[in-house]
Design brief:
Blueprint: E1 4-9, E2 14-19, E3 25-31, H1 43-55, E4 61-66, E5 80-81, H2 86-91, E6 94-97, E7 101-103, E8 107-110, E9 118-121, H3 124-135, E10 140-144, E11 149-155, E12 158-165, H4 167-177, H5 192-202, H6 208-220, H7 226-243, E13 254-257, H8 260-272, E14 277-280, H9 283-295
Helix pairs in contact: 3-9, 4-7, 5-7, 5-8, 6-7, 7-8
Protein backbone atom coordinates (compact mmCIF):
# COMPACT_ATOMS: atom_id res chain seq x y z
CA UNK A 1 0.00 0.00 0.00
CA UNK A 2 1.35 3.44 -0.93
CA UNK A 3 1.83 6.20 1.63
CA UNK A 4 -1.52 7.39 2.95
CA UNK A 5 -2.45 10.95 3.85
CA UNK A 6 -5.16 10.62 6.52
CA UNK A 7 -7.39 13.67 7.02
CA UNK A 8 -10.06 14.42 9.63
CA UNK A 9 -11.86 17.57 8.45
CA UNK A 10 -14.46 18.64 10.97
CA UNK A 11 -16.75 21.60 11.52
CA UNK A 12 -14.20 23.75 13.35
CA UNK A 13 -10.88 21.97 12.89
CA UNK A 14 -8.70 20.28 10.28
CA UNK A 15 -6.21 17.53 11.16
CA UNK A 16 -3.96 15.45 8.98
CA UNK A 17 -1.30 12.78 9.30
CA UNK A 18 1.19 11.07 7.02
CA UNK A 19 1.03 7.31 7.63
CA UNK A 20 3.52 4.70 6.51
CA UNK A 21 2.53 1.25 5.27
CA UNK A 22 2.20 -0.06 8.84
CA UNK A 23 -0.01 2.83 9.95
CA UNK A 24 2.70 4.62 11.92
CA UNK A 25 2.32 8.43 12.03
CA UNK A 26 5.30 9.99 10.26
CA UNK A 27 4.11 13.59 10.59
CA UNK A 28 0.95 15.42 11.63
CA UNK A 29 -0.58 18.86 11.19
CA UNK A 30 -3.62 20.65 12.57
CA UNK A 31 -5.47 23.86 11.86
CA UNK A 32 -8.55 25.73 13.04
CA UNK A 33 -9.75 25.91 9.42
CA UNK A 34 -12.77 23.63 9.74
CA UNK A 35 -15.42 23.52 7.04
CA UNK A 36 -17.33 26.51 8.44
CA UNK A 37 -14.36 28.79 7.78
CA UNK A 38 -13.76 27.65 4.19
CA UNK A 39 -15.22 30.00 1.54
CA UNK A 40 -17.51 28.47 -1.05
CA UNK A 41 -15.58 26.66 -3.73
CA UNK A 42 -12.26 26.90 -1.89
CA UNK A 43 -11.96 23.43 -0.33
CA UNK A 44 -9.42 22.17 -2.84
CA UNK A 45 -7.32 25.32 -2.40
CA UNK A 46 -7.36 24.98 1.39
CA UNK A 47 -6.48 21.29 1.10
CA UNK A 48 -3.55 22.09 -1.17
CA UNK A 49 -2.33 24.86 1.12
CA UNK A 50 -2.18 22.49 4.09
CA UNK A 51 -1.23 19.18 2.49
CA UNK A 52 -0.10 19.88 -1.08
CA UNK A 53 3.55 19.11 -0.30
CA UNK A 54 2.58 15.72 1.18
CA UNK A 55 0.42 14.91 -1.84
CA UNK A 56 3.31 15.82 -4.17
CA UNK A 57 5.33 12.87 -2.90
CA UNK A 58 5.41 9.78 -5.18
CA UNK A 59 2.30 7.55 -4.98
CA UNK A 60 0.71 9.56 -2.16
CA UNK A 61 -3.06 9.29 -1.87
CA UNK A 62 -5.61 10.56 0.62
CA UNK A 63 -8.70 9.55 2.58
CA UNK A 64 -10.74 12.35 4.17
CA UNK A 65 -13.28 11.71 6.91
CA UNK A 66 -15.58 14.08 8.77
CA UNK A 67 -17.74 17.02 7.76
CA UNK A 68 -15.84 17.63 4.53
CA UNK A 69 -18.26 15.05 3.11
CA UNK A 70 -21.37 16.92 4.30
CA UNK A 71 -23.61 19.22 2.27
CA UNK A 72 -21.69 22.17 3.71
CA UNK A 73 -18.35 20.57 2.87
CA UNK A 74 -16.18 19.90 -0.16
CA UNK A 75 -18.76 17.60 -1.75
CA UNK A 76 -21.58 15.55 -0.25
CA UNK A 77 -20.78 11.87 0.30
CA UNK A 78 -24.17 10.22 0.97
CA UNK A 79 -24.61 8.41 4.28
CA UNK A 80 -24.30 4.63 4.40
CA UNK A 81 -27.21 2.93 6.18
CA UNK A 82 -26.53 0.66 9.14
CA UNK A 83 -25.66 -2.10 9.65
CA UNK A 84 -22.34 -1.13 8.12
CA UNK A 85 -18.77 -2.40 8.21
CA UNK A 86 -15.47 -1.65 6.48
CA UNK A 87 -16.75 -3.22 3.27
CA UNK A 88 -19.77 -0.88 3.27
CA UNK A 89 -17.57 2.19 3.70
CA UNK A 90 -15.06 1.12 1.08
CA UNK A 91 -17.83 0.58 -1.48
CA UNK A 92 -19.27 4.06 -0.86
CA UNK A 93 -16.13 6.20 -0.93
CA UNK A 94 -16.64 9.37 -2.97
CA UNK A 95 -13.56 9.86 -5.16
CA UNK A 96 -12.79 13.53 -5.76
CA UNK A 97 -9.77 12.55 -7.83
CA UNK A 98 -9.74 9.00 -9.18
CA UNK A 99 -7.52 6.70 -7.09
CA UNK A 100 -6.02 9.74 -5.39
CA UNK A 101 -8.39 11.66 -3.05
CA UNK A 102 -11.59 10.21 -1.57
CA UNK A 103 -14.20 11.28 0.99
CA UNK A 104 -15.32 8.68 3.53
CA UNK A 105 -19.13 8.59 3.88
CA UNK A 106 -20.85 8.93 7.22
CA UNK A 107 -23.39 6.50 8.65
CA UNK A 108 -27.13 6.74 9.24
CA UNK A 109 -29.56 4.54 11.13
CA UNK A 110 -33.24 4.49 12.03
CA UNK A 111 -34.33 4.98 15.61
CA UNK A 112 -36.23 2.35 17.52
CA UNK A 113 -39.06 4.75 18.38
CA UNK A 114 -42.47 4.96 16.70
CA UNK A 115 -41.22 7.52 14.17
CA UNK A 116 -38.08 5.54 13.38
CA UNK A 117 -36.28 8.84 13.79
CA UNK A 118 -33.10 8.94 11.70
CA UNK A 119 -29.70 9.49 13.29
CA UNK A 120 -26.41 10.35 11.57
CA UNK A 121 -22.67 10.59 12.11
CA UNK A 122 -19.70 11.82 10.07
CA UNK A 123 -16.13 11.13 11.08
CA UNK A 124 -17.02 9.05 14.11
CA UNK A 125 -17.40 5.92 11.95
CA UNK A 126 -13.66 6.00 11.21
CA UNK A 127 -12.83 6.44 14.90
CA UNK A 128 -15.11 3.52 15.79
CA UNK A 129 -13.41 1.09 13.43
CA UNK A 130 -10.01 2.40 14.46
CA UNK A 131 -10.74 1.87 18.16
CA UNK A 132 -12.03 -1.65 17.49
CA UNK A 133 -8.79 -2.39 15.67
CA UNK A 134 -6.68 -0.99 18.51
CA UNK A 135 -8.74 -2.89 21.11
CA UNK A 136 -8.59 -6.08 19.05
CA UNK A 137 -12.33 -6.71 19.33
CA UNK A 138 -15.26 -7.05 16.94
CA UNK A 139 -18.22 -6.39 19.26
CA UNK A 140 -18.52 -3.53 21.75
CA UNK A 141 -20.41 -0.55 23.08
CA UNK A 142 -18.54 2.63 22.17
CA UNK A 143 -19.01 6.19 23.36
CA UNK A 144 -17.75 9.27 21.54
CA UNK A 145 -18.21 12.22 23.93
CA UNK A 146 -18.50 15.72 22.58
CA UNK A 147 -20.92 18.46 21.60
CA UNK A 148 -23.13 15.70 20.23
CA UNK A 149 -22.17 12.48 22.00
CA UNK A 150 -22.58 9.16 20.19
CA UNK A 151 -23.43 5.80 21.79
CA UNK A 152 -22.70 3.02 19.33
CA UNK A 153 -23.42 -0.70 19.21
CA UNK A 154 -21.09 -2.90 17.16
CA UNK A 155 -21.63 -6.61 16.54
CA UNK A 156 -19.18 -8.78 14.60
CA UNK A 157 -17.45 -5.76 13.14
CA UNK A 158 -20.66 -4.06 11.98
CA UNK A 159 -22.16 -0.87 13.38
CA UNK A 160 -25.72 -2.01 14.02
CA UNK A 161 -27.19 1.01 15.79
CA UNK A 162 -26.25 4.31 17.41
CA UNK A 163 -27.82 7.24 19.26
CA UNK A 164 -26.78 10.89 19.45
CA UNK A 165 -27.14 12.96 22.63
CA UNK A 166 -26.79 16.78 22.62
CA UNK A 167 -25.01 16.67 25.96
CA UNK A 168 -22.12 19.02 25.27
CA UNK A 169 -24.31 21.55 23.50
CA UNK A 170 -26.95 21.50 26.25
CA UNK A 171 -24.22 21.98 28.87
CA UNK A 172 -22.91 25.01 26.96
CA UNK A 173 -26.39 26.48 26.54
CA UNK A 174 -27.40 26.01 30.17
CA UNK A 175 -24.11 27.15 31.65
CA UNK A 176 -23.63 30.18 29.40
CA UNK A 177 -27.03 31.29 28.10
CA UNK A 178 -29.52 30.47 30.86
CA UNK A 179 -30.22 31.64 34.40
CA UNK A 180 -27.81 28.94 35.61
CA UNK A 181 -24.94 30.92 34.14
CA UNK A 182 -25.43 33.56 36.85
CA UNK A 183 -24.21 31.19 39.55
CA UNK A 184 -21.85 28.79 37.72
CA UNK A 185 -18.08 29.35 37.52
CA UNK A 186 -16.85 27.68 34.33
CA UNK A 187 -13.24 28.65 35.04
CA UNK A 188 -13.03 26.75 38.31
CA UNK A 189 -11.24 23.44 38.71
CA UNK A 190 -13.16 20.25 38.03
CA UNK A 191 -14.58 18.82 41.26
CA UNK A 192 -14.94 15.06 41.11
CA UNK A 193 -17.16 14.74 44.19
CA UNK A 194 -19.73 17.23 42.83
CA UNK A 195 -19.61 15.57 39.41
CA UNK A 196 -20.37 12.15 40.88
CA UNK A 197 -23.11 13.68 43.01
CA UNK A 198 -24.71 14.84 39.77
CA UNK A 199 -24.29 11.37 38.24
CA UNK A 200 -26.02 9.82 41.26
CA UNK A 201 -28.89 12.30 41.10
CA UNK A 202 -29.43 11.52 37.43
CA UNK A 203 -30.03 7.85 38.20
CA UNK A 204 -32.97 8.47 40.54
CA UNK A 205 -36.61 8.95 39.59
CA UNK A 206 -37.62 12.37 38.36
CA UNK A 207 -37.09 14.78 35.50
CA UNK A 208 -33.69 16.02 34.36
CA UNK A 209 -35.37 19.39 33.71
CA UNK A 210 -36.18 19.73 37.42
CA UNK A 211 -32.69 18.64 38.38
CA UNK A 212 -31.18 21.28 36.09
CA UNK A 213 -33.13 24.02 37.89
CA UNK A 214 -31.78 22.61 41.15
CA UNK A 215 -28.33 23.70 39.97
CA UNK A 216 -29.55 27.24 40.59
CA UNK A 217 -31.08 26.58 44.01
CA UNK A 218 -28.07 24.61 45.24
CA UNK A 219 -26.07 27.73 44.47
CA UNK A 220 -28.59 30.13 46.01
CA UNK A 221 -28.55 28.26 49.31
CA UNK A 222 -24.76 27.79 49.12
CA UNK A 223 -24.99 24.02 49.13
CA UNK A 224 -22.43 23.92 46.33
CA UNK A 225 -19.78 26.44 45.28
CA UNK A 226 -19.93 28.09 41.82
CA UNK A 227 -17.08 25.85 40.59
CA UNK A 228 -18.73 22.73 42.01
CA UNK A 229 -22.00 23.65 40.28
CA UNK A 230 -20.34 23.35 36.86
CA UNK A 231 -19.07 19.87 37.73
CA UNK A 232 -22.46 18.93 39.19
CA UNK A 233 -24.31 20.01 36.03
CA UNK A 234 -21.83 18.04 33.92
CA UNK A 235 -22.51 14.98 36.05
CA UNK A 236 -26.27 15.41 35.71
CA UNK A 237 -26.14 15.54 31.91
CA UNK A 238 -23.59 12.77 31.39
CA UNK A 239 -25.49 10.70 33.94
CA UNK A 240 -28.66 11.20 31.89
CA UNK A 241 -26.87 9.63 28.92
CA UNK A 242 -25.89 6.67 31.07
CA UNK A 243 -29.39 6.28 32.47
CA UNK A 244 -30.71 5.67 28.95
CA UNK A 245 -28.27 2.85 28.14
CA UNK A 246 -30.10 -0.40 28.69
CA UNK A 247 -27.48 -2.55 26.93
CA UNK A 248 -24.60 -1.79 29.31
CA UNK A 249 -23.08 -4.78 31.08
CA UNK A 250 -20.28 -4.92 33.67
CA UNK A 251 -18.93 -7.94 31.76
CA UNK A 252 -18.35 -5.93 28.53
CA UNK A 253 -16.04 -2.91 28.83
CA UNK A 254 -17.16 0.31 27.19
CA UNK A 255 -14.75 1.87 24.69
CA UNK A 256 -14.43 5.65 24.92
CA UNK A 257 -13.04 7.76 22.06
CA UNK A 258 -12.23 11.44 22.46
CA UNK A 259 -10.03 14.04 24.11
CA UNK A 260 -8.68 13.14 27.57
CA UNK A 261 -10.63 15.81 29.48
CA UNK A 262 -13.98 14.48 28.24
CA UNK A 263 -13.19 10.78 28.35
CA UNK A 264 -12.00 11.23 31.96
CA UNK A 265 -15.48 12.36 33.01
CA UNK A 266 -17.18 9.46 31.26
CA UNK A 267 -14.63 7.08 32.76
CA UNK A 268 -15.39 8.40 36.26
CA UNK A 269 -19.14 8.10 35.69
CA UNK A 270 -18.98 4.60 34.21
CA UNK A 271 -16.67 3.24 36.90
CA UNK A 272 -18.79 4.88 39.60
CA UNK A 273 -21.74 2.90 38.25
CA UNK A 274 -19.75 -0.33 38.12
CA UNK A 275 -18.81 -0.37 34.44
CA UNK A 276 -15.32 -1.05 33.07
CA UNK A 277 -13.98 1.05 30.21
CA UNK A 278 -10.93 1.92 28.13
CA UNK A 279 -10.11 5.08 26.19
CA UNK A 280 -8.54 6.10 22.88
CA UNK A 281 -7.76 9.53 21.44
CA UNK A 282 -6.50 10.77 18.05
CA UNK A 283 -4.87 7.42 17.38
CA UNK A 284 -8.32 5.94 16.73
CA UNK A 285 -8.81 8.23 13.72
CA UNK A 286 -5.47 7.37 12.12
CA UNK A 287 -5.92 3.65 12.87
CA UNK A 288 -9.40 3.71 11.32
CA UNK A 289 -8.32 5.45 8.12
CA UNK A 290 -5.30 3.17 7.78
CA UNK A 291 -7.42 0.05 8.30
CA UNK A 292 -9.95 1.32 5.74
CA UNK A 293 -7.16 1.92 3.24
CA UNK A 294 -5.88 -1.63 3.73
CA UNK A 295 -9.41 -2.95 3.22
CA UNK A 296 -9.83 -1.39 -0.22
CA UNK A 297 -9.88 -4.06 -2.88
CA UNK A 298 -8.29 -1.81 -5.53
CA UNK A 299 -4.52 -2.56 -5.47
CA UNK A 300 -2.14 0.30 -4.73
Amino acid sequence: MSALIAIDWGTTSLRGAQLDASGRVLASRSSAQGILSVPTGQFEAVFQAHFGDWMAEPNAWCLISGMAGSRQGWQEAPYCPCPADFNTLSQHLLWLQADRIALVPGLCCSGQDALQTPDVMRGEEVQIFGALHLAACQSATLVLPGTHSKWVQVQSGRVTHFQTFMTGEVFALLSQHSILGKTIDLNGAFEEAAFLQGVDQSQTEGSVLHRCFAVRTLGLFERLSPAALASYLSGLLIGEELRCQTALSPQQPVILIGNPALTLRYTLALKHLGMACQSFGDEATWAGLHALAKHLTKPR
